[in-house]
Structure formats: structure tokens, C-alpha cells
Design brief:
71 residues, mainly alpha, 32% helix
């Protein structure tokens, strides 16, 4: 049985990628992950999880997880 999420689009900017990479611990030593102008700038591999997480979060998690409290 599938669950409709209502989310069908996930967009992001280089800034979003850089902030995510910084948030998970990348530093100035990891320029390809934190400096948007680096010729090899890229998202950390786990960034792709955000699209699925965003779709899941558009569902009512209280119906799926007993005691769920996002705050």
C-alpha cells in the first residue's frame, strides 16, 4: 500500500548545498563541498536524502509514528 505525499518537486540552490555541507561538518579543508566557486563544487552524497525526507515530511507523521513530536 502506497502513501500519497503530495510533494512532487524538490529544488535547491548552490547555497542550499553549501549550507547543508557545512551543517554536516564539512570545513574549509573540503572546498569542493563548501565553496560554491570551486570548479569541483558538489553536494555531499547524503544530500540526496533530503528530497525523500521532504516528501515524507509533507505527510502527517503522527499517523505513522506513535508519539512523534517534531519540535
Amino acid at each position: 500500500k502506497g502513501t500519497e505525499t503530495g510533494a512532487d518537486d524538490f529544488s535547491f540552490t548552490k547555497r542550499d548545498v553549501a549550507l547543508y555541507n557545512l551543517g554536516i561538518g564539512c570545513s574549509e579543508k573540503d572546498l569542493k563541498y563548501v565553496f560554491e566557486m570551486d570548479p569541483n563544487f558538489t553536494a555531499f552524497p547524503t544530500f540526496g536524502v533530503l528530497a525523500g525526507f521532504t516528501m515524507v515530511m509533507s505527510t502527517d507523521m503522527t499517523k505513522l509514528l506513535d508519539g512523534y513530536n517534531p519540535s
